[in-house]
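Class, carefully examine what follows:
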Amino acid sequence: IGNTVLHILVLQPNKTFACHMYSLLLSYDRNKEGPGSLELIPNNEGLTPFKLAGVEGNTVMFQYLMQKRKQNLWSFGPLTTVLYDITEIDSWAEDQSFLELIVSTKKREARHILDLTPVKELVSLKWNMYGRPYFCFLALFYILYMVCFTMCCVYRPLKPRTGNRTSSRDNTVYVQKMLQESYVAYEDELRLVGELITVIGAVVILVLEIPDILRVGAAKYFGQTILGGPFHIIVITYACMILVTMVMRLTSTTGEVVPMSFALVLGWCNVMYFARGFQMLGPFTIMIQKMIFGDLMRFCWLMAVVILGFASAFYIIFQTENPENLGQFYNYPMSLFTTFELFLTIIDGPANYDVDLPFMYSVVYFAFAIIATLLMLNLLIAMMGDTHWRVAHEQDELWRAQVVATTVMLERKLPRCLWPRSGICGREFGLGDRWYLRIEDRVDPNKHKMMRYTEAFKAQDRDNYEKGSEKLETNGDTLCKKDLSALSLSRSTSRTSSHRGWEILRRNT
């Protein structure tokens, strides 16, 4: 019951009352330091009160709990060394990481905790010492891996076509070699080494990604933008396309160009994932994800309806015409593709002035140009501009969340020998097995003195304003003008008192 009450207090809107009641309830806890402490008992979601405060974005309760856990090591003048307990914060030995919970929650207030002590210092220490070097090395290794895969695709085994053409539109010159013919020369053996590296890399990607999907859940793993959800979909699809290509090569099945081309596009698009390691490029990847999976996905439904309607109309119009003179609409699939190009203004309207065009083509093309080019494309630009404006206002906050998510990911993937635990064990200071982060804080006494002066002046101004407001409420409507002048006099008096206070500050400084 006591643990349930602690979780309820974390969710209270009155932060000051919740902190006092939290402290009062813990004062009756018999096992304050033991494993049976109320603060260490998780709820049904596996969250302790401390983790729940972070997930809900309750910065007041989080700071209150951190103040209870900190230990003052020594103090000398304005310098103070503080040990902050990071046992539940550090993701090194936690199955359900506190940092991962913060960046994966949908509440924006939770990301404000990343700017608080000691979370900010812990993330900075992990990122600068281990995260950034490992992430840059991983980016370089992945680019070299993609170069190897691209070269294997460029020099894939082909041979000249021997059969006769079946149509005047058939333009095929080379065909795919059989498996027995693909690995004969010395160049083929070099390509075989690159293909083995590519397949091994695809298997490693699946081995690393599948356990995280099972641990977190597919909806949360692929749906969180900050965690790199769309990029996880891309890299898993890429690995599957590599394996499909391998099976088609081993069985001598024609058509391997389809999964191979998909793999090339997805593999190189995944390079954008590594932009999150740089503050200048990281927020742009989030903008691209939000535009693709937000604005563009909604726009594609409207675009599909327009393209289907006008492509059908164009096909019907040119169905009786000779395709050799106007071949852009010679069959229905080609009509869809041509209309898509017209929609994006990639090509101009097809016309052949040596022959007569149908009259309805001009009418339908005029309506298509008005609806598609002038209306819908400008609508898409306006939607993307609004998304860019919203993301630009929180780009620094999003980049810090990306850094935290990347740090936690690397810490889980890498062996323990390459990523030692951050902080200091409490045994060195007689504080048990808990881990602490040492932070040096400099206290400026003049700053606190000036803050006290400022608060005093604010209180005096507030009192003068409340007196004027009370005087205004007690009088009737007939004395409205007189009361307003009295209120303005009160405000001028307040400004005068504030002016005298700031003059005192200047002389003291």
User: Anything to note?
Assistant: DSSP finds 17 helices and six strands in the chain. The two ends are 54 Å apart (CA to CA).
